Amino acid sequence: MNSIKVFCPASVANVSCGFDVLGFCLDGIGDEMKITKTANKGLIISKITGAELPLDPNKNVATIAASAILKNFNLDYGFDFEIKKNIKPGSGIGSSAASAVGAVYGINKLIGEPFEKKELIKFALEGEKYASKAEHADNIAPALLGGFSLVRCNKTFDIIKLPYPEKLYTTILHPEIELKTSHARSILKKAIPLNDVVRQSGNLAALISALYTKNYDLISKSLKDYIIEPYRSKLIPEFDLLKKTALNSGALGSGISGSGPSIFALSKGKEIAENVGQEMKKIVSKLPIKHNVYVSKINQKGVKII
Amino acid sequence: MNSIKVFCPASVANVSCGFDVLGFCLDGIGDEMKITKTANKGLIISKITGAELPLDPNKNVATIAASAILKNFNLDYGFDFEIKKNIKPGSGIGSSAASAVGAVYGINKLIGEPFEKKELIKFALEGEKYASKAEHADNIAPALLGGFSLVRCNKTFDIIKLPYPEKLYTTILHPEIELKTSHARSILKKAIPLNDVVRQSGNLAALISALYTKNYDLISKSLKDYIIEPYRSKLIPEFDLLKKTALNSGALGSGISGSGPSIFALSKGKEIAENVGQEMKKIVSKLPIKHNVYVSKINQKGVKII
Q: Can you spell out the DSSP letters for B214-225?
C-alpha cells in the first residue's frame, strides 16, 4: 500500500460530569487526510484546505503525531500529507485530536500495522500535547476507537470502551468565537469543594451505569457538571439559554463540548436531535456570531479508511 | 404479624474511589433485631446486648429511624425493640446503618408493607443522620438493598443497584480503636486539587465499568483513593503495612471501610480472602490492639427476615 485516505472524526470530550476522562465520537463530522509514501525520507505536508494551519511538519499536530510513531523505525522512505480540515480548529470538538488520530492510524496502516489500534493512543497524544499543552486522551481515545471512551488513567493510557444505547444522537452547536483551550483551562478552579466532588462523582458513576444499562432516563439525570461548567459557560455567549433551549426541546442533557465554545446535546433519536439543533439555531441566529449546527449519531467505529 | 426478627447486615462504604457514593453489603456479619407490637402506643427498647447503646428511644438510631416511618401513620399500638448488636459501634462497617435499616424494614413489614424497599431509605437516613451528623446513604443503601449500591444523589435518594462478579469476597480487619466519624470527617481537605479529582473520577468510572463487565483485573486497578485515604489512613495504626500485606496476599484492592478504623480488602474467591485475613492478622497481632477479622461474600439480598 503506497497511499491511504482516512476519515478523522470529530469528538466530544468531558461530557458534563466526565471532565478529562470521558469522550464520545461523532459520525459525519470529520477531516479527511491522504497520506502517500514518498521516495525521500521525512515528512511533508503538501496541502491543507479548510483551515489556516502550519505546513511546517514540526508545527503541525498531524506530522508531530506521525513522527512519534515513526521514530520507532528506521525507514528508507517518507510520507506526504494532504489534509482537508472540516473540523474548525478551536471549535471544541477535537480538531487537533482528529488530525493526530488520522495521522497515526494512516501511518500505522502504511507501514504494515506494527501496532494495535489502542497502542496508537500514546503517539496521537504527542500531537495533542503540542496543540493543547495538556496531555489528555479524552478526544484522542474516542476519535481512534469510536463510541464512548473512558480514560481511566492519562499516564498509562488505560482506556475503556463503553457501550451506549443505540438511539443516542448528538447535536453540536459551534458558535464561531475564539476560545483558546489554554485560557478555558486557566479559568478553572484549582481545587474543588469536597461536596461538589461527591455530587459530580455520583453523577459520573451513574452515567457509566446508565450507558451499560441503556437507561435514557438515568443518562438524562446524570448529565450534570458542578465543577467545570459554572466557570467555562461564562465564556460562551447565551450558554444558559442555549442549554435550557436544548433541554426544553427534548434533549437528555446538554453541556460544553471539550473546552468549548461548542455546545453539545445528547438526545434519544435523530428527530429530537434535529429539533434541538433547530431550536438552538433560532437563539444563536439572533447573535452577531457565525455558527454551525451538526446532528450526528454516535460513531461506533472511530477513524477509518475511506 | 405481631413480631418480626430481622438480620441487619454490616456494610462497607466509600470503597476506595467512591467516597460518599459507593457501598456494598456484607453477609454473615450483622445485628439481629426483634420488633414486637405492643398494646401501648410509642416505642420501647427493652433490651440491647453486645454493645453499650442508649435504651432511650429518642437517642437510639433504630427507634429514631422507626419514628421517621411511623410519623406517617396514626397507629393505636406501639413497638418493642430487642437488639443484639454484633457490629461494634464505631467500627466503620455501618453499625448505625444496620440498626436504622433493620428498624425501618421490620416496622414496614409489621404495618403491612405500605412502602417499597427503596422508599425506606429516607426513613433509615433519619437514624443515620442522628448517629453520624451527616446525611449519607452509602451504608444505608447497601444494607437495605444488598450488593453494591451507588448513591447518585444524597438529596433525592436516587440509588442504583450495581451488579458485581460472583466470586467477589471481602475481608474486614477491625482494629478496636476509637475513631469518631465526625473526627474522621473533620480531618479531610475541604477542597480537592483538580488533578486528583480527575484521577479519582477515572478510577471510579472504571470501577463501575469493571463491576458491569465482571472484570477482576480492572476492579483491582481502579481501587485507588487519592482524596480521602492519604489523610484518614494516618488515624489507623500500621494502615500502610496492612494494606500492602493485603495486596501481597492476593487481594484485588484494599482501603478504609467507611470512615474507619476498619480496613477492607476485596478478593477473587473465599480462599484468597481468608488468606488475606490471616496475613493481616499476623501484622495486627503484634500491636497492643484488640481486633476482629471477618471474611464475607458480598450479600446480594441485604436486610432480611430470620
A: T-HHHHHHH---
Asked whether residue A152 falls in the same domain as residue A179, the answer is no
B221 contact residues in A (CB cutoff 8 A): 152-153, 158
Among B162, B190, B208, the domain boundary falls at B162
Q: Using the 3D structure, point to which of A119, A134, A162 is the last residue of a domain.
A: A162
- A-B CB pairs within 8 A amount to 121
Residue numbers of the domain that contains B222: 168-297
CATH number assigned to the domain comprising residue B233: 3.30.70.890
Are A205 and B152 within 8 A, CB to CB? yes
User: Inter-chain contact A154–B202, Cβ cutoff 8 Å?
Assistant: yes
Q: DSSP secondary structure string, A102-138?
A: HHHHHHHHHTT--S-GGGGHHHHHHHHHHHHSS---T
Number of domains within chain A: 2
pLDDT, tens only, B151-205: 999 888 899 999 999 999 999 999 999 887 778 888 899 999 999 999 999 999 9
Q: Pick from A102, A193, A217, A204: which is nearest to A148 by CA?
A: A204
Q: What cell numbers appear for A274 in the block?
A: 434535529
Distance of alpha carbon B142 from alpha carbon A156, whole angstroms: 32
- Which regions of chain A are under pLDDT 70? 134
Q: Does residue A114 have a cis bond before it (omega within 30 degrees)?
A: no
Tell me whether residues B203 and A150 touch, CB distance under 8 A: no
Reported as type and span, the H/E element at residue A62 is helix A61-70
Q: Is B63 a catalytic residue?
A: no
Q: Quote the pLDDT of residue B120.
A: 96
| Gap between the Cα atoms of A140 and A97, Å rounded | 5
User: Beta strand pairing status for A22-38 and A3-13?
Assistant: antiparallel
The residues of A carrying an active-site annotation are: 128, 181
All three cell numbers of A266: 445528547
C-alpha count within 13 angstroms, C-beta hemisphere, residue B166? 0
Q: Does residue B303 lie in a domain region?
A: no
Q: Does some domain include residue A305?
A: no
Residues B153 and B26 in one domain: yes
pLDDT at A102: 98
